[in-house]
Design a protein that fits this description.
There is one protein chain. Strands 1, 2, 17, 18, 19, 20, 21, 22 and 23 form a 9-stranded mixed sheet that branches. Strands 3-12-15-14-13-16 form a 6-stranded antiparallel beta barrel. The protein has a 4-stranded antiparallel sheet with strand order 4-11-9-6, with no helix packed on it. The chain has 4 domains: about 100 residues, conserved putative lor/sdh protein from methanococcus maripaludis s2 fold, CATH 2.40.420; about 80 residues, Beta Barrel (Elongation Factor Tu (Ef-tu), domain 3), CATH 2.40.30.170; about 60 residues, OB fold (Dihydrolipoamide Acetyltransferase, E2P), CATH 2.40.50.100; about 80 residues. It starts with a helix and ends in a 12-residue tail after the last helix. Helix 2 packs antiparallel against helix 3. It is rod-shaped and about 130 Å long. It has 4 helices and 23 strands. The N terminus and C terminus are likely disordered. The longest helix is centred in the first third of the chain and has 36 residues. Helix content is about 30%, strand content about 35%. The relative contact order is 0.19. With about 375 residues, the chain is of the alpha+beta class.
Length: about 375
């Protein structure tokens, strides 16, 4: 009886051991299955060490428009209105000026009639003077009167032009195209000459104002491309001009960058990566290839046998979507940029295209490199 019991226990133990071995082998085989990944190639980038400097997005045309003529406001643009260059921003009551212009025109007509009469009178006296029927004094007096009327007429015409100019100024025009962002005057109010009525901002022509330490001045120049960052958004911008005048207290100077990207909003704060060293060739890799876990930083390099080898690295200068890498990575190495988080060193991989990896599909035959 004891022999039969012992034999039964042995069979159960043997079955459990076989089951455990089979399960472990299956897991081991599963761990060694090729893992689908996406790769990119390490390259060379010419760049310089950089430091971040604060910047602000501003408009190249931002003005508080004032009235050039005093008077009651009859119309003013609304906040948010987009006005073209030369468009109407506000109107001031010009009824009094129109009446003044009519009065001036009547005065001009009167002087023109007097001038015509006096000119004819002078011509008659000149004819009479040829036969000595008019004294020279009378002739001189007529010529003088003719000159006075001519001067009065010239002054009246100038006064008319001045009135017309004031009528033109009663319509406040936009010196540049832009959007009304603030209104300081209302319809019915009396506007004094020089009093701001509204603020007009050009939302198309923008730039980024950057203040940088003087140590950067020797490495920046107009036309250079630099990286601009705002929260999670990053883009390149061109240096429009460098103002080589530093503040004596802060030792900071100013740069202006073109802000052609529509993402930048006027008044927003940004960070600008400015060079602090001369440019040099560097090994650069995609940022997505870098894996960081705790204090460790590494990448997976795919060798000729399609095995992923872990390589510890350090990062250097950032260059948009790529970053300088310092370590055992060489130009031309294939780096895992998608799927590296689940790899183990030495594991075989299957290289997918970007579309296949994002869609989670199985690789096509053409996508699997030959071993």
């Amino acid at each position: 009886m004891m022999s039969v019991l012992h034999s039964s226990r042995m069979r159960r133990a043997l079955s459990a051991a076989l089951l455990l071995c089979w399960s472990s082998g299956a897991v081991f085989a599963q761990e060694q299955d090729p893992s689908p990944v996406e790769v990119d190639v390490a390259g060379t980038s010419v760049s310089a060490a950089t430091r971040w400097a604060p910047g602000t997005v501003i408009s190249m045309n931002d003005a508080r428009i004032s009235a050039e003529l005093s008077g009651r406001i009859t119309w003013v643009a609304e906040v948010g209105d987009e006005i073209e260059a030369g468009g109407v921003l506000a109107r001031i009551d010009d009824n009094a000026l129109q009446l003044e212009l009519q009065q001036n025109q009547a005065r001009i007509q009167q002087l023109e009639a007097q001038l015509k009469f006096q000119n004819n009178q002078h011509q008659r006296l000149r004819q009479l003077a040829k036969s000595n029927n008019v004294s020279s004094t009378q002739l001189d007096e007529a010529a003088s009167q003719l000159g006075i009327i001519e001067q009065d007429l010239a002054q009246a015409r100038i006064a008319g032009q001045q009135i017309e100019r004031r009528i033109e100024l009663s319509t406040v025009q936009a010196p540049f195209g832009g959007r009304v962002v603030e209104r300081m005057a209302q319809v019915g109010e009396f506007a004094n000459q020089g009093t701001p009525m509204l603020r007009l901002v050009d939302t198309v022509d923008r730039e980024i104002r950057v203040r940088a330490p003087v140590s950067v001045a020797q490495y920046v120049q107009p036309g250079m491309q630099v990286t601009v960052s705002q929260e999670q958004y990053t883009a390149a911008a061109e240096i429009r001009t460098v103002i080589p005048v530093a503040d004596e207290r802060s030792r900071m100077f100013e740069l202006r960058l073109l802000a052609e990207d529509p993402h930048w909003v006027i008044g927003s704060a940004v960070r600008v990566a400015l060079p602090i060293s001369a440019t040099q060739a560097r090994v650069s890799i995609p940022r997505d290839a870098v894996i960081m876990r705790g204090q460790e930083m590494y990448v997976y390099v795919v060798d000729d046998a399609n095995s992923a080898q872990r390589v510890d690295v350090r990062t250097g200068v950032g260059m948009g979507e790529r970053v300088e890498v310092i370590g055992g990575v060489e130009v031309g190495d294939r780096l895992v940029v998608r799927g590296g988080e689940r790899l183990t060193p030495g594991q075989e991989v299957t290289i997918l295209s970007r579309n296949e990896h994002e869609a989670g599909q199985a690789p096509s035959i053409a996508a699997i490199p030959s071993s």
